[in-house]
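Mods, move this if it's the wrong board.
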Amino acid sequence: MFFETVMRPIISKALSGALFLTICAALTAHSASPATDSLSAAPTGHWEQTLAEAAEAGDDYGCREALDRLVQKLAAREPERALEFIRLADSLLPEPRHALFRTSLNVSRLWKQMIAANSFEATDHALAKLREKRPGDLTPEELIELEFLTGLSIDYQSIAAEAYGNIPQAIPYVEQALRRLEKYPLDERIHLEKLCREELSDLYAYAEDRRAAGELEKCLDLHRAWLAMDTRPDRPHRDTTEYPMRIYGKMVFLLDLIPREQLTEYYDRCMLLARERNDLEEIYRTSARYYECTGDNLRAAAYVDSVLTHYARTGKKADLGSIYMAQSHMYEKAGDYEKALKAVREGNEYRYHNRMDEAQRHLAEMRTLLNVDRLELEKARLADRSKFFMLVAGAVVVLLLVGWIVYQQAMVRRLKQAKRLSHAAHEEAQRQSCRAAESEKMKTAFINSMCHEIRTPLNAINGFSELMLTEEDPEARHLYQEEIRKSTAALTSLLENMLELSKLISTEEPLPVAETDVCLICAERLELQKQLSANPSVVYSFEAMEGGGTCVVPTNAVYLTRVIDNLLQNAAKFTAAGHITLACHDDRTNRMLRISVSDTGIGIPPEKREWVFERFTKVDPFKPGTGIGLYLCRLVITRLGGDIHVCPEYEGGCCIRISLPY
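Not the wrong board. Structure tokens:
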């Protein structure tokens, strides 16, 4: 990705460093007229002239603004001159109330110099000088500088070493520096606080902390507060928009930390300011970030083309090879592989020519030295040639070593992957073996149970049929006929359950529904079960919806009747004495029909409340039954779009509740 995979770890720190420029134009002295505005003479700013005007007029605000701008402009390319202006600040603004501002100048210089030179020497030297002092000898401003530079050093050295996981370790130091700054008045701390908050926003962004956007918002508030402190007449050429423009552009990096709408709002604000300033580079660069973050990779790649064109037209130096490679990633994500390949080739070509240009420059320097001293040049050539061959030899060795390491790592990864796949296959085989064994056990148990359940009524039918052939007593023959009828009904019910189960399992079609009076069905099935059970020790009761009446809802009457019968038969089977209650309630608020069957029987242990709904499971293996009743109930209720479960809060037996939406 354009600014995450390539530019962000390299350039985002340079951008964040540049963003702490306090872009404000200096004002003329009280005695100068608007016609002598130094900013009108040079829009880029004659800040030294502005500083002289402010110093002559005794304008502390103007001095601070000019010094801040001069140090930040000179820190990268002329560090010694920047240091001279810091020393000048000591003489122009010696009061204690300007101590924090002078600290901010030094911190700003070190930060910019570290970014430009990609070197931590100056920062490490400053930290070493501060640490040489005893803690009691450090001034409050030096303590703040020590903590901030410590966090800054951890941040950038982690990036240089590509140890990005260490970056969040810098956060506590910068936060502590901000806590110390809160004790100072706003006009004294404003410059240093902006630097701290800009660095903290970068750290939060690396740590994926959503507070990053808040810190940038505070930077904008500080910028507005700084502008509000200026009570002098306005200068027509004063530029106050560059800083907020770059802050809004920086916020575009925070896609994963801020809502999409807020990201778009920041982008629009940045574009508004950039267009007012006619800052084409900011427009193209930030637009590329924005559209790449929002997933419009083709449009982002088009803006990258605009960035490249702008750099070519203005002659600005940039790492075009990295930009081309980032553009190739955008085209690749957009599916335009032809343009992706073209971008890769252009990037490689640029890098090739860039290296060739560097070689040509080195050759020109050597020829210049030849005109000065031929002998020294010859020695230098011999030394360079020897170093070159050593470098090539070393590079070849390093490349071979790297290739070998990469190959070994690839082989290790393949072995690990093969091991993981083998282990996963072994575990899957074990699981399948366990399932097969369990299935075999369940099938065996089911066959045994079915044989027993079928043999019992068949034996009764056969036995009583033979008795009827020899029995002459009408009363006894009637009793035998009743027993044959009961056994036939039990056998028929068993076979019907098996057929229904087979039918439900073999099809996924929804069950047909029609308007049905569920309360009437519940009352009828309860009364029928009471008659079939003929157990005087069990009291059957029916709880209908409040107010009585009917409960007509769309459902499948046949299958719902079978479910209610199964639940009532189970309750009667495991309740020798006590109560069996069938309840039916219509929750019209939630459009939910609730049916429950509760008893005072043996109950179901908590660990088996889900197990009993599996096929061929029986709480009491000595009770008659196939173990498919509750499984069939759940299958029907699920196909009707409802839910059935054992109520965990019910005590004193078992309660099974059905919830059916309508």
